[in-house]
Amino acid sequence: MAGETMNLHQNSQGMEPASHVKNAAEIPVAPPPADEAARQEPLAIISDIHANMEALQVVMGEIKKRDIRRIYCLGDVIGYGPNPLECLDTVIEACDFTIMGNHDFAIFYEPFNFNTAAENAAYWTRNQFEADTDRPRRNRRWRYLGRMQTRIVHKRFLAVHGSPRRPINEYIFPDDIYSATQKLANIFDGLKHLCFVGHTHVPGVFVPQPDFYSPEDLGGEYRITEEKAIINVGSVGQPRDHDPRASFAILHPDRVEFVRVAYDVNKTVEKVRSIDALDNFLGQRLLEGT
Ligand SMILES: [Fe+2]
Hints:
The chain is of the alpha/beta class. The protein has one domain: Metallo-dependent phosphatases (Purple Acid Phosphatase, chain A, domain 2), CATH 3.60.21. It is 33% helix and 16% strand. It is built from ten helices and twelve strands. The protein has helices spanning 36-39, 53-65, 84-94, 102-108, 116-131, 135-147, 176-179, 181-189, 265-273, 280-288, and strands at 43-46, 70-73, 97-98, 151-153, 158-160, 194-197, 204-207, 211-213, 221-223, 229-232, 246-251, 255-261. The strands form two sheets. It has a six-stranded mixed β-sheet. Strand 2, helix 3 and strand 3 (97-98) form a beta-alpha-beta unit. Helix 9 runs antiparallel to helix 10 (280-288). The model is unreliable at 1-10 and 12-30 (pLDDT under 50).
């Protein structure tokens, strides 16, 4: 896919998005902690916020309540939802890292293989970025998007948006354990141990047999062993596992905890309805978690 090989520091507009390079030091991007003590700290992993500020706020509140200081974001901060600027600003301030998702890519570069509703939402989102008259704030957002990496190689795990071999765009669906066993075998062959993903908006754990376990199957947590595992943390802002609550995960030294938190879905749905460029379906699906 073109997006994974192209220069991630230039977009088709060639304006603010490209200018981040000379001011890159302004953006807070922390490296993985080098010392063992920090590595033992719980780490919150969030993904697929999709410009849903109500969901992001409750997730950030839950993370703070648990006194977790480190947050990694697996991408798709924006796209689909009504609050892209607020969500990106929050992520810039709160997260150690953000990986580039296909919707972040679509807004910084061009939509790739999107349906009409997603494409319209991407162009509307880009217009929101451009319409902010606060130039430093606008440039900061474009620079942050332009600096998103496609993968993070941490001592304990790999983190990508989609899959280890095609990090921006490849989906790993629960049904793949029946219908795409060779695909899963190939992906696991290239994996050392643990990989965190988002992208499908369906939380759970894939193991090499192949098999898939939902958080309910696991009693809410996955015990880390020597076995390879691909762990989907679910979606903060647009869950698709028939549970409308925001989803994220916490990595502890010995386990991964799956967390769900309820938020004011109706408020987000109303915001989507009030914006003509956003298809009402994008709000309606939040009510069902689909
Ligand atoms: Fe997504």
